[in-house]
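> Could you send the Pentacotripeptide-repeat region of PRORP domain-containing protein prediction when you get a chance?

Sure thing. Input:
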Amino acid sequence: MIRKRPNDRCINRHQQSSTTFWSQCVNLRSLKQIHAFLITKGFNSNSSALRELIFKAAMEISVSFSMIRQKKDVVPWSALTSGYAKRGELDVARRYFDDMPVKDLVSWNVMITGYAKRGEMESARKLFNEVLKKDVVTWNAMIAGYVLSGECKKALEMFEEMKTVGERPDEVTMLSLLNACADLGDLQVGMKIHWSLSEMVSSSGFNVLLGNALIDMYAKCGSIGRALKVFQDMREKDVSTWNSVIGGLAIHGHAEESINLFTEMRRSKVRPNEITFVGVLVACSHAGRVNEGVNISSL
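Output:
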């Protein structure tokens, strides 16, 4: 029998029942019972939902550092490390992580991601170098962290290192790399990323995030024709999709096309936001259509 992954409604129901269960717990030993209980309710043993519930259980029964360090079971250690890291309490998470008798890959990835999100790339890199067996999540955490920190060249270097060891990128990897190319204005590398991405999914199959990242990259690199091609091929578009093209056209001197696209956007029932208006007002300014700009700003 294939066990189906619990949907949100099931998770909520199991959260309520497991909350009742752990409210009667009095010590750390009960965490193993909670773990077994949740597994019987359909949670995968490595799922983030399961770890979150165990973390809440530990908080409910006031599990202390001194209590948990006496145990060898990786489940409560990993759950507490992940829970504190996701709450932004990275120093507390690190205490549990450093004392874990056996560190699982999820915990390594959680800590690396936590440091990367805080811009502490030296700490993230140090942990990264200690991971013996990395997965795509480990690499993605470092690449995204470098982009977030403005070290986009290091992000591209990390990708080259990733390819050297034979780790296959996923769409999350590509999204970070496109953002790096956009910030660097590196059209040639951006085109290579696009080509690699096209081998993974068809151009019409790009999700909105990937499509928007491609448009933004091409627009920032001055390749408006390619940006428009991606835009036209996308089946789903959101306000950011339109904004990237409208703004890109305006900045690179295609004022009339930008204004026309804004008109098309309104006809398509996509509601413009402040970024949309900035882009189209820049276009009106470049085209000398001041009166039209005034009318647009009053919408």
